[in-house]
Amino acid sequence: MTQSNVSFDVELIKKYNLSGPRYTSYPTAVVFNEYFRESQHRKNLLSYFNESKNKPLSLYFHIPFCDTLCFFCACNKVATKKREKADIYLNYLEKEIQMQAALIPAERVVEQMHFGGGTPTFLTHPQLKRMMAMIDAHFNLLKTDDRDYSIEIDPREAAPDTIQLLVDLGFNRFSMGVQDVQEKVQKAVNRIQPIELTAQAISMCRNNGAKSINVDLIYGLPHQTQASFKDTLAQVIQLSPDRLSVFNYAHLPHLFMPQKRISEADLPSPDEKLGILQMTIQDLSDAGYVYIGMDHFAKPTDELAVAQKNGGLQRNFQGYTTHAACDLLAMGVSSISLINGTFSQNNKNLEAYYQQIELGQIPVMKGYQLNQDDKIRKQVIQDLCCHFSLNTDKISHQFDVDFSDYFAEEIKRLLPFESDGLISINDGDITVSKKGRLLIRNICMVFDQYLNQQSQQQFSKVI
């Protein structure tokens, strides 16, 4: 068996398997408040205009439409067969792009861009061309290989000519949902996707020089067993994606209506889920993948693994990234920006999103401006999430605080983690052990000052 950089301790996992955030942001989105509206968003961008001119930019665009509804999905989406609905959406998105771009220096280079959803490949070829032309007209897009432009594709809708078009439009990173290759599981979640379609999509991306290909899998879905998921892993490993995201299915039908169509009786037991996870970690390690953290794996040569090794890995709303230092400007329904230490989220409701734009407003519905304490805690959580270690002297120096005084209570709350061998605290360093890496969310939660104010039901289990 291959030596892994993460260790599985069943008893400790059971002890600490609480609900908690994934920390794609700090504070998490549940802290955003509705007192923060469009005027504050504009004011933030305008006050930052001159000093941001040389800073690189990351763009995110949310395409909410899906052709069919996957019952497990917790994304903001609209299931429809009517592709013309996307034409209406693009009309409004273009107006938002114009309003947002007017507040951003034209010379700012877009290093990173991501299309998410929903299903971005729901868009027809003319719609995709139109959308990229809209973006190119208002932002300084890179035309060189230095760009990091990614898109989520559905292999069921990504024919070879579609992938060719995406490459021609400038995309060089591709992510695709697979979830599970077993027909029984696929039927139970209403996502029929033969492995041949996935293989074809990966092959086409690779033949067109994709920098990176990511595959999403989910464990904990109906009818999954260790044996069935082992077969799924073997078939996906054979396709050799550069990255894999293996998510824990969070069954929260009180929050996500489509999940009511999944029978709880068909879900694997908690012990079976743990067995699936343990087997997944071992099989991916044996196949040469590195555990990056929080459900993510990558080949050792992939940029994520290299950045983690070199201390340059960061985390944002797209998960692990090498570009989180960029300001993130997000457009489209429900999307979240982070610019100049300030979060702003667009309206989650499609009709309300349209209505705000009709009124000539950027469709911001809520947001949050980080204070100094937030910035300190954000960096602490970022370091732990990304590198499984924290240099307390660096934090003290960076923020002009005495870490041991500032976090005296938190250090006390870390002691049980140290007793259980999940972390070690030595000479100004907090280091997460191999068996602590799977429980990194619990360790980060110690530094989250808002957690006691939030309902645990808003978050998934950490494992």
Describe the model.
With 463 residues, the protein is α/β, with parallel strands linked by helices. The chain is 37% helix and 20% strand. The protein has two domains: 1-27 and 372-463, Arc Repressor Mutant, subunit A; 30-330, tm_1862 like domain (pyruvate-formate lyase- activating enzyme, Alpha-Beta Horseshoe), CATH 3.80.30. The chain contains 16 helices and 20 strands. The radius of gyration is 22 Å and the shape is globular. The model has no long low-confidence stretch (mean pLDDT 93). Monomer. Pfam families: HemN_C (PF06969), Radical_SAM (PF04055). S-adenosyl-L-methionine 1 binds at residues 60, 117, 152, 336.
In short:
By secondary structure, this protein is α/β, with parallel strands linked by helices.
Look up the CATH topology of the largest domain.
pyruvate-formate lyase- activating enzyme
Helical run tally? 16
Q: What is the number of E strands? A: 20
Second CATH tier, the architecture of the largest domain = Alpha-Beta Horseshoe
User: What is the number of domains?
Assistant: 2
The CATH class of the largest domain turns out to be: Alpha Beta
Percent in strands: 15-25%
Mean pLDDT over the residues: 93
Q: Pairing-aware structural class of the strands and helices? A: alpha/beta
Shape: globular
Largest sheet: 10 strands, mixed
Q: Helical residue percent?
A: 25-40%
Low-confidence stretches: none
Terminal CA distance: 23 Å
Mind telling me the C-alpha Rg? Answer: 22 Å
CATH superfamily of the largest domain: tm_1862 like domain
InterPro entries: Coprogen_oxidase_HemN (IPR004558), Coproporphyrinogen-III_oxidase (IPR034505), Elp3/MiaA/NifB-like_rSAM (IPR006638), HemN_C (IPR010723), rSAM (IPR007197), rSAM_horseshoe (IPR023404), rSAM_sf (IPR058240)
Binding site for S-adenosyl-L-methionine 1: 60, 117, 152, 336
GO molecular function: 4 iron, 4 sulfur cluster binding; coproporphyrinogen dehydrogenase activity; coproporphyrinogen oxidase activity; metal ion binding
Binding site for S-adenosyl-L-methionine 2: 72-74, 118-119, 179, 191, 216, 250
